[in-house]
Design a protein that fits this description.
With 443 residues, this protein is α+β, with helices and mostly antiparallel strands. Helix content is 44%, strand content 21%. It is built from eleven helices and nine strands. Strands 1-2-3-4-5-6-7-9 form an eight-stranded antiparallel β-barrel. The longest helix has 94 residues, at 2-95. It starts with a helix and ends in a 13-residue tail after the last strand. 13% of the residues are buried.
């Protein structure tokens, strides 16, 4: 019994000892496990807290931006508008020659927005310029617009219109202003003297006054430039020379004298078409049938301001002939002569030299060809007339004769009867290619 008890006791003791060992093992391993568990829990808590804070910041930050950005944006917009106003004022002062005031405006603009110059250059072109102009200038432009409506309602003469525009022009700093913002240099930057010199090239030595009138239809400033009396005085001197006088007698201005006084057009040709019937020969098969032909040919006259005239007679259509008369030094068969303007009549003198060849006797080898020089001089006198719609567009025949002189000294003069169907009047037709280029300015 004792053995068994001891055995059991031993077993119990062994079991107890083993249990204590396990407890010792557990007790020995528990601190490490606790440390790991605590460490894991702390990391997870930190991560979770970070996530919660991050999510809260994401939820709160847009609201803060929405609340704070409008006020800040308004301040920035106000600064940019003021800076643009200062900068544009500086540009105007620089145009007017007030450099010191311009520098002050530039400094104020740069203090508000350092890159204001680049921002002004990047303004879209479709935005009107009035957004960047001070209120004073806008009020002036509104007054101009109201007065424009009054001017359109009233019928006024050219002289009165010019006086009214000059009064408004005195309030403006430049001859014109761009309707939309420009990135390149605008023509309003140029001084008045330079624009007038450009207009002399526009008119040119060929007196293209039609282009000058189209230039005046752009704006008020261009209208005043196109009404410069010196340009019109030079045009009158080029047309009438010494007969023009020192002042536009019987006329209010040089322009009125050029428009209303009888003269010629130089930007086209005067064309006259002649048609007549010519009977043909009967056919040997049909003796009762007699054919006839309708013959048509054209006469062309091209005048130049310095007194040169080009004459051409051809059966070709005007579209094929007018291009040959563009330059003064035209080739054959175009004849070159001179004209003189006297009151409402123009007198032309055109000379031609023909080589007439006649076959000599074949027996004479030294004189195989006998050449005779025939010199012909055409004298023409035409009257300038106007119609109800256009001025100086018709030339009517009043005299025509041909003087012929041969090499042998024989002379003859032939005077023509000016029948209407054989000598119809000339009608002016403008040719665009004549004024497409300018060789020299108006002088």
């Amino acid at each position: 019994m004792s053995f068994s008890i001891q055995g059991s006791g031993s077993n119990q003791s062994s079991t107890d000892s083993s249990g204590e060992g396990e407890d010792q093992d557990e007790s020995s391993s528990s601190p490490n496990q606790v440390a790991l568990i605590v460490k894991d829990t702390t990391v997870e808590e930190v991560l979770s807290s970070f996530r919660e804070k991050w999510q809260k910041e994401l939820q709160i930050s847009p609201r803060k931006k929405l609340v704070a950005s409008p006020a800040r944006k308004e301040i920035e917009d106000d600064h940019e508008i003021k800076a643009k106003t200062y900068f544009l004022n500086g540009v105007e002062m620089e145009k007017n020659g007030k450099l010191y005031e311009a520098i002050q405006f530039y400094r104020r603009a740069v203090q508000l927005v350092p890159d204001i110059e680049s921002r002004i250059d990047n303004v879209p072109r479709n935005k009107p310029l009035q957004e960047h102009i001070p209120e004073d200038e806008n009020s002036d432009k509104e007054e101009y617009n109201e007065s424009d409506d009054e001017d359109e309602d009233e019928e006024i003469k050219d002289g009165e219109l010019q006086q009214r525009i000059q009064k408004k022009f005195s309030k403006m700093s430049a001859i014109c202003s761009p309707k939309q913002e420009q990135k390149t240099t605008h023509i309003s930057i140029l001084p008045m003297e330079m624009i007038l010199y450009i207009l002399r090239w526009v008119v040119s030595c060929d007196l293209d006054l039609r282009s000058l009138e189209m230039f005046s239809m752009v704006c008020r400033g261009f209208y005043l430039c196109a009404r410069d009396p010196e340009v019109w005085r030079l045009a009158c001197l080029r047309v009438w020379g010494l007969n023009c006088g020192n002042s536009p007698y019987n006329f209010l201005s040089w322009r009125q004298m050029f428009v209303e006084r009888t003269r010629l057009h130089f930007n086209g040709c005067y064309i006259g078409k002649t048609t007549y019937l010519r009977h043909g020969e009967n056919s040997f098969q049909d003796q009762f049938y007699r054919p006839w032909h309708l013959v048509a040919y054209y006469r062309y006259l091209r005048f130049f301001p310095e007194g040169i005239v080009l004459v051409l007679t051809s059966s070709e259509e005007p579209a094929q002939c007018v291009g040959q008369m563009k330059h003064r030094n035209a080739r054959s068969p175009i004849l070159r002569g001179y004209y003189r303007l006297k009151d409402d009549k123009v007198i032309l003198v055109v000379q031609r030299q023909d080589n007439k060849t006649s076959q000599g006797y074949k027996k004479s080898k030294r004189r195989a060809d006998l050449r005779e020089m025939a010199e012909q001089t055409f004298h023409m006198e035409l009257q300038i007339k106007s119609t109800n719609k256009k001025r100086h567009v018709q030339l009517v025949w009043t005299h025509y004769s041909v003087f012929t002189r041969t090499l042998k000294g024989d002379e003859s003069t032939c005077n023509f009867d000016l029948v209407n169907n054989r000598f119809p009047p000339f009608w002016f037709s403008r040719v665009k290619s004549y004024t497409s280029e300018s060789e020299s300015p108006l002088q």
